[in-house]
């Protein structure tokens, strides 16, 4: 009787494992991308970040606070250095704005500036302000399954949809199979040339989620250049109404 009970338990365990593996194999590339994106974004989030811009002959650090609600609303407030403190960048649906308190001006950022480096870094305005979405603006396919940095990963190929206003002709993302952590990306231009790569490091549990706390952006073919983003603090799924993302709030947020 004891043997039968043990055998039954073993069979149930095997079935459960097989079902888990089968369910994972049935995930589409878009579902994998959604899981990875939701993991680092949540429905809403609030974070404290530091950016280090590295060049062959100099370095620069920028500290900031950031808030986001879904894909369409985000705000970033610069806390340091002193010369940039108080600047605010906001995305609200299809509009992009920059508040510059030093000159008392609210500037609308045109789509033509989306490919430019944000605050002189290797992040583009598009990256920081999230005008384009890796979820909705691309068609996704599982290009390969590879082992990278000790992780079994899906390699996802992303090709822009015809109507999408994006700056990349192709993107590859490596996402871990077990935890859906994005550990590498490659971005290509219209000539199919690699423009930059990003890498996730120093995985930590932050507000209950295992995520990379350090992300490095490395331009292709430019030795000695990179941008490092450090996630110091982050809270997910906080109370954050869309009304928070307004021009009035840009001027008074701290």
UniProtKB/TrEMBL annotation:
> Which keywords belong to this entry?
Lipoprotein
Checking Pfam families in the record gives:
LolA_like (PF17131)
Uncharacterized protein TP-0789 domain location is 72-252
CDD domains per the record? LolA_like (cd16329)
Specify the protein name: Outer membrane lipoprotein-sorting protein
Q: What is the species of this protein?
A: Lutimonas vermicola
């Amino acid at each position: 009787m004891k043997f039968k009970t043990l055998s039954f338990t073993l069979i149930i365990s095997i079935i459960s494992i097989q079902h888990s593996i089968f369910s994972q194999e049935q995930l589409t590339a878009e579902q994998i991308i959604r899981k990875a994106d939701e993991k680092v974004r949540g429905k809403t989030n609030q974070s404290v970040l530091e950016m280090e811009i590295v060049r062959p002959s100099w370095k620069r650090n920028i500290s900031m606070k950031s808030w986001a609600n879904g894909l369409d609303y985000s705000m970033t407030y610069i806390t340091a250095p002193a010369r940039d403190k108080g600047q605010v960048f906001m995305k609200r649906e299809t509009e992009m704005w920059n508040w510059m308190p030093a000159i008392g001006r609210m500037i609308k950022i045109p789509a033509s500036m989306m490919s430019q480096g944000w605050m002189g870094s290797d992040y583009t305005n598009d990256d920081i302000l999230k005008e384009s979405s890796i979820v909705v603006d691309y068609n996704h396919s599982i290009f390969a399954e590879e082992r990278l940095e000790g992780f079994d990963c899906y390699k996802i190929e992303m090709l822009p949809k015809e109507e999408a206003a994006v700056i990349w002709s192709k993107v590859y993302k490596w996402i871990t199979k077990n935890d859906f952590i994005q550990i590498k990306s490659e971005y290509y231009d219209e000539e199919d040339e690699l423009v930059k790569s990003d890498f996730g490091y120093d995985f930590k549990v932050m507000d209950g989620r295992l995520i990379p706390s350090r992300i490095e952006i490395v331009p292709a073919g430019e030795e000695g250049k990179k941008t490092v983003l450090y996630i110091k603090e982050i809270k997910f799924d906080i109370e954050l109404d869309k009304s928070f993302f307004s021009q009035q709030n840009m001027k008074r947020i701290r």
